[in-house]
Amino acid sequence: MSFNIGLSGLYAANKALNVTGNNIANVATTGFKSSRAEFGDQYSQSIRGTAGGKTQVGSGVKTMAVSQMFNPGNINGTGQALDMAIDGNGFFVMKDNGSQIYTRAGEFHPDKDGYVINNSNANLQGYAVDENGRVIPGVLTDLRIDSSNLAPKPTGRISETVNLNSSATAPSVAPFDPTNVKSYNYTFNTPIYDSQGNEHQMNQYFVKDAGTNSWTMYTTIDGRNPADPTLTTPLVNKLPFTSGGKLDTAAMAAGAVAGGLTIAADKTFQLAGWVPAEKNAAGAWVGNGATARPGGVTLDMLATTQYNAASATTAKDQDGYATGELAGLTVDQSGNMFANFTNGQNKVIGQVVIANFANMQGLTPVGGTAWKETYASGVPIIGEPDTGTLGRIAGSSLEDSNVDLTGELVNLIKAQSNYQANAKTISTESTIMQTIIQMT
């Protein structure tokens, strides 16, 4: 019996050495989870299937399980756009030749067709987006990077926050002449875009009227009349103010303004009939073949004030942009993958999902730092990162192996000593057997 007990101890010590050696070998493997060998004692059973009583000696040790430790590893930045780490619970979902596998290793890159894959050529799973960039949750798909240009968007709305100095006096030169700075008090330009992504400059000039609480605004695009680029005459609108310095919208009658911008019911200005233009070879201004935004351009100046402070533009925004080429990728903590374009725009092109399990110990390792679902693990809970029990995504980062090298080296010494001790048990039993044989 002692031979069997010692032999079981050798098997157990060898298993511990193998587990420790595997941990040490993977100390630099991204997303690797260390394992530990778990043992239990064993007793021989009597004929009735019960232990042999208080004098029963155990029959050795057996390996009960080799469990993986899913505690997190350190997360380190890499600077690579498609490197990802999970900060918290969960796994990346991958599609490998039709089967679904799960991993913590976030070393991803695009293949020749733009699909996001790992080093084993498995496809990263996530949610797609519709044509408006809205995520379509619920249906998993192979995430793909669309490298096509971002189509231009013609300007449809301009918002400005401007203060006009209430202490300013009417210009010394009249009438207004955009080429003479003495004929106006303040000016600034705003870039706007046509349907082909061509940039144009909307020029606005402000002239203090001789009376109080009143200014005149002159508007051109590229220095021309917006509706007729052959003319240099600007569009002209009055800006009345209350005694408190706010734009007096009550004094602004809604409707068409002769020679000026139309005033809408909400008291914003409407630029209709804009003809995007350019100079031809002969130096004449002609239409460039593009169009303005259907429905015209809204100019929101409701935040304009007249206070005793320097005339200044404190905020300005417009919703158009030129054609953009793909310049980079970023991933936020919710798993949204953004395509970054040269025109400064960002577009969501997909969302990475995370899966979690009721019993992670029930997962089956399949190599390549990946696992498969089993009956013991339960079905995966798949959803958006940073929701419920699912962790968040750390972009441009990777999770290190969670192997504690110092601890593993100590385990190596313990397993070695355990092996030697069990070998000594067998050696001692052999010596005793030799003694008995010699007595016969």
Automatic annotation (TrEMBL):
GO biological process annotation, one example: bacterial-type flagellum-dependent swarming motility
Answer whether the UniProt record assigns the keyword Protein biosynthesis to this protein. Answer: no
Q: Mind telling me which InterPro entries this protein's record contains? A: Falgellar_hook_FlgE_sf, Flag_bb_rod_N, Flagellar_basal_body_rod_CS, Flagellar_FlgE/F/G, Flg_bb/hook_C_dom, FlgE/F/G-like, FlgE_D2, LlgE_F_G-like_D1
UniProt entry keywords in alphabetical sequence:
Bacterial flagellum, Cell projection, Cilium, Flagellum
Q: Which residues form the Flagellar basal-body/hook protein C-terminal domain?
A: 397-439
Localized where?
Bacterial flagellum basal body
Q: What is its main location?
A: other
Q: Where is the Flagellar basal body rod protein N-terminal domain?
A: 4-33
The answer on whether this UniProt entry bears the keyword Hydrolase reads: no
Would you tell me the Gene Ontology cellular component terms? bacterial-type flagellum basal body; bacterial-type flagellum hook; cytosol
Query: Flagellar hook protein FlgE D2 domain spans which residues?
Result: 163-321
Any one Pfam family match given in the protein's UniProt record, by short name: Flg_bb_rod
Q: Which residues form a coiled coil?
A: none
Q: Where is the Flagellar hook protein FlgE/F/G-like D1 domain?
A: 85-146
Q: Which family does it belong to?
A: Belongs to the flagella basal body rod proteins family.
Which NCBIfam families does this one have?
A: FlgEFG_subfam, PRK05682.1-1
Q: Which PANTHER family match?
A: FLAGELLAR HOOK PROTEIN FLGE (PTHR30435:SF1), FLAGELLAR PROTEIN (PTHR30435)
Q: What does this protein do?
A: A flexible structure which links the flagellar filament to the drive apparatus in the basal body.
Q: What is this protein called?
A: Flagellar hook protein FlgE
